[in-house]
Every structure is written in C-alpha cells, then in structure tokens.
Amino acid sequence: MRYFLPIWILIVAVSIGVLGFRESVLRKPPIEVFPDMDRQMKFRPQVPNEFFRDNRASRLPASGTVARSEPRRNVAGGAVVYSYEDHPVNSGKMTGTTNWVELNPTVIDAQSMARGRQRFEINCLPCHGPLGDGNGVTKKLGMAVVATLHDPRIVKMSDGELFHVISNGRNLMGPYASQLAVEDRWAVISYLRALQFSRLGSLEDVPAQFRASLNK
Amino acid sequence: MSDIFPKWTNKLPTRVIAGALIAGTTVFAGITYYATPKYTRVGYQPVQPVAFSHAIHVDQVGLDCRYCHNGVEKSWYSNIPAASTCMNCHNQILANDPKLALVRESYNTGKAIPWVQIHKTPDYVYFNHSVHVNRGVSCFSCHGEINKMDEVRHAQPLSMGFCLDCHRNPEKNIRPPEQVFNLNWHTNEAAQLQLGEKFVHDWKVNSSQNCSACHR
User: Fold this and answer.
1) What ipTM score was computed for the predicted complex, to two decimals?
2) Record: contact A22-B33, CB cut-off 8 A
C-alpha cells in the first residue's frame, strides 16, 4: 500500500496532465471511441472527392441546366409557369423579346411584401442599408462604392431590369441568383419599390385620418 | 508454521480489495469523464485555411447567418458559402489582403477552399437543419455562441443524449421564429418555459423520440 498509493496517484496525475479537461481547445480531429459505422461508403455534401477533377463530391449542374419539377409559385393571374419556360417571371424579359418587363409579374400581397422585407434585410441591408440609401455597415468598413437605391435612375428602372441586376449582378455588385430563389427576388423587388415610394410620396398619399400624426 | 504465511499477509486481502476499489473507481471516473463526446468533441477547434471570423462578420458587420448559410432553412444540410459570396464584399474590402488570397484564388479558378469540417455526426444519423430552424430551435442551442467566436469551436457534444434531452423537453429551447438567427436573444427560464409551451402547443411540435426519426 505504501508503494501502490503514490504510484497510482502519479499515474492519475500524469493522465490528467496529458488528457486535460473537458472543453479545452483541441486542434486535432476528435477520436471516435467506437467507430463502428460512423463513416460509411457514401459522400456527404461539400466533402472532397479525388475522383473528380475539381475535387468536389457535390457535382454542380452542367451549365445551362434548368430545373423542371414544380411550377413557379405566385405568378400573377394564377398562370402555370415552369422554370424552363421563356416567361417574364424566369427571365425578367417580355416573352420572345429582349425588352425588360415593366411590372413585377408575381402576386404582390402582404405575405410577399413581408417575405421581401425579410430577404432584403438578409441579403441587401449589409451594403445598401435598411433604408436602401447605400449607407449599410460595409460602407464604414471599407466598401468605397455602394449605390443608393433612391437614385432617380434606379427608381425609373423597370422591374425586369432590377430582376436582372439581382440575378446577375452589375459592375461591382455580385450576383444573388444562388442566394435568392426566383420568387424571393421578385418579393425583394416589391419591397424595394415600397422603400423607394416612401421617399417619393407626398402628404396627399397618406390616408386622411393618419395625416395629423405625421405633422410634427 | 507461522513461517509459511508471515504476519503481514493477514492484512493482504483487505489491502488488495482496497487497492482494487481505489483503482476501479478512478478508472471508472476517468472513463465517464473522458470517453464521452463531452470530452472528445467539445472544444474541437481546427485551424482553418482562411482566418475567417464569425465575430467580425456576425457581430461587427451584422450579417445574418442566412447571408452565407443560405440553405439552412430549406435543406437538411447547412452549406458553407462559396467563394463568390465572400467576394461580394471582398472585391472592395481588403481586396488585396494576403489573408484572403485563398478566397480570391478559389473565386478565380473554381478550386474549393479546404475548410475543415467541425461538426460531424456519424453517418448513421440523419440530422436535419430545416426542421429545427423553422420550428424555433436556434443555432445557439446546438452550436453555442458562434457570433462571439473568432474561430468556430465545437460547443455542444451533439451526442444522442444531447439530442434526446431536447427532444424530450423541446419547450426549454423553442424561441419566436424571428429570433432564431439572433444569437444574442435570451430570456429568463420562466419566460422561456411559458413561451416554449405556447409554441409547442400552437405549432403541434412533435420532436420524435422514435429511433427511426434519426436512424434509418
């Protein structure tokens, strides 16, 4: 006992010294204690795979691929439009032409406005600011050029051209097609129009019973 | 006769038993403390190829998680953003900074950035982000205070016990849907329970404990 106890205490102390405590920073991948079927012969999204030249297990669709599946939601007039069709909802252009469509071809209601506001605040607010005036946080942190969306040129832009700018980007602004679904892009445009309108309206546009509360 | 068993042997059985008890308890304590994901996983913080900081981008710049992890509401899988997402800002901000060299290379050549995956459930677990996020379970519950981390670290064990703790009592963690992505939102326990119970009832939340919910 005289020998056993000190030796044992030493062993325990050394193991704690080596293993450390819970929650300490570990730089090496965690050990899998019973790795029975933890890692199987299948690929998860975004993992590397040497078989393909670009080293990605998740394949990108071949360029020009268009999804068929479900028709678009929310098209004005209840039209059934699929994503591969040449229709203003998909392209922002009048069918069969290269002219921008003037008006948003989706249904605009309280729900799509709320959705548009939410998506605007996620995707556009960092640069264009909550009011769309180009004073987002990034301006203070080193972004030199940001457009104000109240610029008369942009206010006059057709909805179809706005759709094109969001989908493909323009000059220094990146494309948002991979972040925003087509329906969401149109919802963002509706909300953006509301923002622009908020600066262009006059007192006469406010319903009579609310005017007094604005006269301050 | 006393020569065969000297006197000290009288105490031998008790000593052996005491020694075995001490050794047994420490080994048992060691295994319960160390051989669990609370030790093996929590604190895992690999060195990432690009010194990307959630603290800067979420807390300082104020980006929403969905600006980058835009699949999290729609899919089981929460994607890591493509380099083009970073370049939306970094084409102007720190445009020539060596810290972002890999990002620019990936953007220009399409080569993937070798991010190290931190959270990784075993392949026999079928986890799903969208069910949780759309039902008021915040990123905070499973990933901790990402918005304060300069380097992402594994904050929760993500063991089966951890999942079931919440699946048995979801009301402790369900928050209003608009606060899911706001990791700074906290209430006290009583208010949380009241809110949670209301949501569980109103939305008919059914966080299943069937094996087949998570294992197939």
Assistant:
1) 0.85
2) yes
